[in-house]
């Protein structure tokens, strides 16, 4: 069993509380992604699991073993970092074999492991080359290979793709997914890239400021964000947010210019004595045509039109509120327009408590 469990884990660096009471269970064989903005404590969390940092308080288990006092080399984990620093004077083969030699594996065992790993990563033809004779993507494969030859129960990845160019990142992303399918180890993967998080994770933990805001499958995080932070962090372009006012059982938008239609599932927004509520709508839930009963029209000013080929991103102004709309319905006149009516699909609207940021709907 290679479940990884963090119980009430806290890590302080003098006055910085990098990890604030994290509770997290990564299931055996699960691909779990830790995602969040820079400085939120992702690497620290990973380094705690690896044993490269010690907990200020709390417990970490790998399988059934409490590992707090077990040294990194005895934790049955492999870690891949962003700077994958291969040994420059060694061939690919020797880079792969090095860790096993240090652990005093016998020669045949090493040869078998190295060849298996090379096969999985499709680097067999590169075995005699030195790192500088490899492309960035090939080097990254060797770095992954170095981790998988050890056949550990748990892999820890810290932004392993962030040094690669955009195209290669996408290729390696699918490679990593395939490798996980094949070897079925438990993986904890750190990234600040939400696309990587969404595409790789069985579940993703969205972190901010040393805390986990939400831990769910990518779809659940996207469709039902736990709070405004998660809603704004996951999704590109980001969700649009507006301040709205509640008065006499109605929700008003843009200084009472519009009163929004309330549908049944929004009724609890009106309960209590709230006077304000934050409304969120994803760019793809703003439409150029009315397609349903609960599509609410908004008059907007067009600021910028970005044509991406398969989709168009419109940067708009509704009163003083900025608004982004993502659509596939491109037509050339769009670029000439100053004003436009867009339709909010009220069925897809989210509401967040103004003070706590927690999701109401
Ligand atoms: N050794 C250290 N000493 C003091 N503070 C540290 C140390 N390591 C990390 N921190 C602080 O802890 C917080 C979390 O850092 P961490 O490296 O875990 O963030 P991160 O989420 O990995 O960010 P990034 O996406 O930029 O890599 C930051 O405020 C950082 O400055
Ligand atoms: Mg980091």
Descriptors:
361 residues, alpha+beta, Rossmann fold, OB fold (Dihydrolipoamide Acetyltransferase, E2P), 2 domains, 6-stranded mixed sheet, 5-stranded antiparallel sheet, 25% helix, elongated, binds adenosine-5'-triphosphate, binds magnesium ion
Q: How many helical stretches?
A: 9
Helix content: 10-25%
In CATH, the homologous superfamily of the largest domain goes by the name P-loop containing nucleotide triphosphate hydrolases
C-alpha end-to-end distance: 38 Å
Query: Spans of 5+ residues with little confidence (pLDDT < 50)?
Result: none
For the secondary structure, the number of strands is 20
Under CATH, the topology of the largest domain can be stated as Rossmann fold
Structural classification: alpha+beta
What is the assembly state of the chains in this entry? single chain
Ligand identities: adenosine-5'-triphosphate, magnesium ion
Total discrete domains: 2
CATH class of the largest domain: Alpha Beta
| Strand numbers in spatial order across the main sheet | 6-7-8-3-9-10
CATH architecture of the largest domain: 3-Layer(aba) Sandwich
Mean pLDDT over the residues: 92
What overall form do the CA principal axes indicate? elongated
Order of helices and strands: EEEHEEEHHHEHEHEEHHEEEHEEEEEEE
């Amino acid at each position: 069993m290679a479940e990884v469990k963090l119980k009430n884990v806290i890590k302080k660096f003098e006055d910085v509380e990098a990890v604030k009471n994290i509770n997290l269970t990564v299931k055996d064989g699960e691909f779990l992604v830790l995602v969040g903005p820079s400085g939120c404590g992702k690497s620290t969390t990973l380094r705690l699991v690896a044993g490269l940092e010690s907990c200020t308080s709390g417990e970490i288990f790998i399988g059934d073993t409490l590992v707090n006092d077990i040294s990194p080399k005895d934790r049955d984990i492999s870690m891949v970092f962003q700077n994958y620093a291969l040994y420059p004077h060694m061939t690919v083969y020797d880079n792969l074999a090095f860790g096993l030699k240090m652990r005093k594996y016998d020669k045949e065992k090493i040869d078998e492991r190295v060849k298996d790993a090379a096969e999985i990563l499709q680097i067999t033809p590169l075995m005699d080359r030195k790192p500088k004779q490899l492309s960035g993507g090939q080097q990254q494969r060797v770095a992954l290979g170095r981790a998988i030859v050890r056949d550990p129960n748990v892999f820890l990845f810290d932004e392993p793709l962030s040094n690669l160019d955009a195209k290669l990142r996408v290729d390696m992303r699918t490679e990593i997914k395939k490798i996980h399918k094949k070897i079925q180890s438990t993986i904890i993967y750190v990234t600040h890239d939400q696309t990587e998080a969404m595409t790789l994770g069985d579940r993703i933990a969205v972190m901010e400021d040393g805390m986990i805001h939400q831990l769910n499958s990518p779809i659940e995080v996207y469709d039902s964000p736990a709070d405004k932070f998660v809603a704004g962090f996951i999704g590109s372009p980001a969700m649009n947010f507006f301040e709205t006012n509640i008065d006499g059982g109605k929700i008003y938008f843009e200084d009472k210019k519009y009163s929004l239609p309330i549908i049944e599932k929004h009724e609890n927004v009106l309960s209590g004595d709230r006077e304000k509520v934050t409304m969120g709508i994803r760019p793809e839930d703003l439409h150029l045509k009315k397609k349903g009963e609960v599509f609410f029209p908004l008059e907007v000013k067009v600021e910028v039109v970005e044509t991406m080929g398969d989709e168009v991103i419109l940067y708009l102004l509704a009163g003083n509120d900025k608004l982004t709309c993502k659509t596939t319905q491109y037509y050339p006149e769009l670029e000439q327009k100053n004003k436009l009516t867009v339709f909010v699909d009220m069925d897809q609207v989210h509401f967040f408590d103004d003070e706590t940021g927690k999701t109401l709907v």
